[in-house]
Amino acid sequence: MTQKQDESKKRILEAAKICFAAEGFKGTSIRKICETADANLALVSYYYGSKEKLYFSVIEYLYHDIEQKLGKLNGNNEPRAALIQFITIFLNMRSDDKQFHMILRHELSSDSSRTEIISSILTPLFDRLRSILTEGKKQNIFHFDSLDRVLTFIVSVLIYPVYDSFLIPIPNEMSTDVQKDVEETANFILAGLHCPL
Questions:
Q1: Per-residue pLDDT of the chain (197 residues; tens, 9 = 90+)
Q2: Angle between helices 30-37 and 51-70 (to 10 degrees)
Q3: Burial group, residue 125, by CB count within 10 angstroms (0-12, 13-18, 19+)
Q4: What are φ and ψ of residue 166, in 5° steps?
Q5: Are 39 and 11 in contact (CB under 8 A)?
Q6: C-alpha dihedral over 130, 133, 134, 138, to 10 degrees?
Q7: What is the pTM of this model?
């Protein structure tokens, strides 16, 4: 593939990511992706074949990014430090790549076969969180009754930030200060685990 073809393919992928994040899979048309990418329909068909294959290419592209960021998790950290590091990586990922966050939310709120693909991508991430929580409980650092319930609570806090809610008016600065977001989210989660702050 020439450099020009490679750039064209990547431009289509980036445009698809933006469109799928804004409108979800069903609400996005190939035509809209082509307009956003400034590319013709034939190119999308040539590189990706179909809307669904393009969607899965976007997911795969995002998956590699998650894998790279997950690699930064230090396996030697004690559970409290590991949990804070996990929260930091996840919230920075959410801030750095709003499209991934929105694609994730679209899929979690729909009942489609694509949810299975999203789940397979996120499983290693949340398996890591599960092992941090398990180790923290074993060491008597974290206190909870149900691992599944506490995992669900933490994932909800990480995926659905309060400043994205239409129910509560939140000042704009709350959605831009990632470091403050990390600090307050970590404190909230640690308090819920009855872990000293």
A1: 687 777 889 999 999 999 998 998 889 999 999 999 998 888 888 889 899 899 988 888 877 777 777 676 666 679 999 999 899 988 888 787 778 778 877 777 777 777 777 777 778 788 889 999 999 999 999 999 999 999 999 988 887 765 555 556 666 655 568 888 899 999 999 999 998 66
A2: 60
A3: buried
A4: -85, -5
A5: yes
A6: 170
A7: 0.77
